[in-house]
Design brief:
The complex is a heterodimer of chains A (77) and B (351). By secondary structure, chain A is mostly helical. In chain A, 51% of the residues lie in helices and 0% in strands. Chain A has one domain: ACP-like (Non-ribosomal Peptide Synthetase Peptidyl Carrier Protein, Chain A). The radius of gyration of chain A is 11 Å and the shape is globular. Chain B has ten helices and 17 strands. Chain B has a six-stranded mixed sheet with strand order 6-5-7-8-2-17, sandwiched between helices. In chain B, helix 6 runs parallel beside helix 7. Chain B has two domains: 179 residues, Thiolase/Chalcone synthase (Peroxisomal Thiolase, Chain A, domain 1), CATH 3.40.47; 160 residues, Peroxisomal Thiolase, Chain A, domain 1 (3-Layer(aba) Sandwich), CATH 3.40.47. Classes of the chains: A mainly alpha (77), B alpha/beta (351). Chains A and B meet through helix 2 of A and helix 1, helix 6 and helix 7 of B.
């Protein structure tokens, strides 16, 4: 999956209540509506898009959306 | 490995009930509405039922058991066993099923005990009781399942919108012509802190601080007598084990997943349940839901879904069913059964 597409899927999966500008350099925890529900959305996205089970700790270990994108390559996807 | 069959046992009928009192998760202030709509959209739960005015879980249990016995024509004196799967007993001790033996007018020759399980409880209840029935065993049993776990106005919003109160009663009977049931049960106690109540047991007895709200490391305000839910851990657990458990029980029963008339999953939340369904590559109509109307109803979410969505199909002889429960413990189980003979299935009754 290309980075642009990943950012799009991320935006869908967190389902923020209003549009928030998200780029590969966005710091995850600084996104205005980042919360526990958004975290669950990202876990589901990895499960379904990459057949990868990632934990809350895995997400916490990523600073930016770009870091999260790199995580998706860990299982060879 | 806990893989087992249940022979000569017929699923005779099922009654379900919920309290009349309804909570609408979207009834919040205008300012909170966008975030709440997002939560409802993703968790999939709009309405929940809650016991009020002194009503408790065992009142629901008594109602279901009476409806069931009346509809399937079982005289109370013919019931050999009354088993409850619940974490919402009337008292800390004794088992609530024993109190209900008397209240329901069942004879003193009825055996009764409670099983302490939550979301995995329906397959466990049917299996445990099914194995007690047989040529040399008991002949008629009622399995009561459910919990009173609805909350309202808790600081922990993620938990507060989740649970609904509900109860069911299932009748099982000795029948040498009944098709086999197949069961598998699993446990992983290493994950018990994903869903637990910290205080009030022997490990951490109730103390002055137990009911004081504090901010936990996960950023949620709760007391130590509230249920602690670790959302990401529950999501990881459920979406890992449930698809495998459904596939495994089909292999054991030697019935392809595509031939199952209904795969009934514990109704945890929409994100968990959709992920399990997509991993199993099943269309939504093969996996009925009751989350939107009743929420997560703990161990009775499978029976509630049967009554809410499948009552017309459950009464058709030969229909094939897989029930998969997963959650607190961590505990999970699956059961395969075929409808046989006249099956009674109530609508979701209101008390």
């Amino acid at each position: 999956m290309e980075l642009d597409e990943f950012v799009g899927r991320f935006t869908e999966s967190v389902d923020f209540p209003e549009a928030v500008e998200i780029t590969p350099d966005s710091v995850i925890t600084e996104l205005e509506y980042w919360d526990s529900l958004a975290q669950l959305g990202v876990i589901v996205m990895f499960e379904l898009e990459f057949q990868m089970t990632i934990t809350a700790e895995d997400i916490a270990g990523c600073s930016t959306i770009g870091d999260l994108y790199k995580l998706s390559f860990k299982s060879g996807n | 490995m806990a893989r087992s069959q249940v022979s000569n046992v017929r699923f005779v009928g099922l009654s379900n009930c919920v309290p009349k009192s309804t909570i609408d998760n979207l009834q919040v202030s205008e300012a909170d509405r966008p975030m709440r709509e997002r939560l409802v959209r993703n968790i999939g739960i709009r309405y929940r039922r809650k016991c009020r005015d002194g009503m408790i879980f065992s009142d629901l249990a008594e109602f279901c058991a009476r409806d069931l016995m009346a509809k399937i024509g079982w005289a109370p004196e013919t019931v050999d066993a009354l088993i409850m799967v619940t974490q919402s007993g009337e008292y800390v001790i004794p088992s609530t099923s024993i109190i209900l033996q008397d209240r329901l007018g069942l004879p003193k020759t009825t055996l009764a005990f409670d099983i302490n399980l939550g979301c995995s409880g329906y397959p466990y209840g049917l299996y445990t009781v099914g194995r007690m029935i047989g040529d040399n065993g008991i002949k008629r049993a009622i399995v009561i399942i459910g919990d009173q776990s609805a909350s309202e106005g808790a600081a922990d919003q993620g938990r507060d919108i989740l649970f609904g109160d509900a109860c069911s009663a299932t009748a099982l009977e000795y029948d040498p012509t009944a098709p086999e049931m197949y069961f598998e049960g699993f446990s992983d106690g290493s994950g018990y802190k994903a869903i637990y109540v910290p205080d009030g047991g022997k490990r951490n007895p109730l103390n002055d601080k137990s009911t004081v709200p504090t901010m936990w490391p996960d950023g949620v305000v709760r007391t130590s007598t509230d249920v602690v839910l670790d959302g990401p851990a529950i999501l990881n657990f459920s979406t890992s084990v449930a698809p495998l458990a459904v596939q495994s029980i089909c292999e054991f029963a030697q019935v392809p997943l595509s031939e199952i008339d209904g795969v009934l999953l514990h109704q945890a939340n929409k994100m968990i349940n959709n992920t399990i369904r997509l991993k199993l590559k099943l269309p939504s109509e093969a996996v009925p839901e009751s989350l939107y109307d009743y929420g997560n109803t703990s161990s009775t979410s499978i029976p509630i879904t049967l009554s809410h969505r499948c009552a017309d199909r459950l009464v058709q002889p030969g229909t094939k069913w897989v029930f998969c429960g997963f959650g607190i413990g961590l505990s999970w189980a699956s059961l395969y059964m075929e409808a046989h003979g006249d099956v009674y299935c109530s609508p979701v009754l209101e008390v």
